Amino acid sequence: MIQLEYRLYDKIKSHPLLYTYENVDEEEVSARMVCDWFIKENQVFERMTVEMAPPRCIIYVRAAVEEEVINREVLTHPEWQGMRLEVRQFKETAMIYPLIETIHFTRTSSLRLYIQSDYVFLQDQKWEKTSAEIDENRRVFVLYVRPVG
Length: 149
Hints:
Layout: E1 2-8, E2 17-24, H1 26-33, E3 37-40, E4 43-53, E5 56-63, E6 83-89, E7 99-105, H2 108-115, E8 119-122, E9 125-135, E10 140-147
Parallel strand pairs: 1-5, 3-9, 6-10
Antiparallel strand pairs: 1-2, 3-4, 4-5, 6-7, 8-9, 9-10
């Protein structure tokens, strides 16, 4: 088990602590490490860098001022078991990204296969990954993709 920290990427302020989580499974930490975006409360953060200092993992983020939390729903007890991945079509000028597919996983390692891939094949089409996020408010991982070809 690992202690996970999210810190503000600000060398001048000595990287202030934003959030800390105790006893996090290594698989979950690994999945969070590859997420480009982190949604928590009313803020969107962009991952800048990751540091392993066992037994601690630190994910350094910056506030993504050009981004906003669109869905302000907060789930305390989701209706599903395991992990949920939403695959959404990225469109440069869109505010809402169309949902392509929702996938449920019982193992984090299976989820990671999707969010670590550069391409996924869904609905008889090849999609290219543009980014991945963890949305703690809604308790989902999100994979943003665009069609290939």
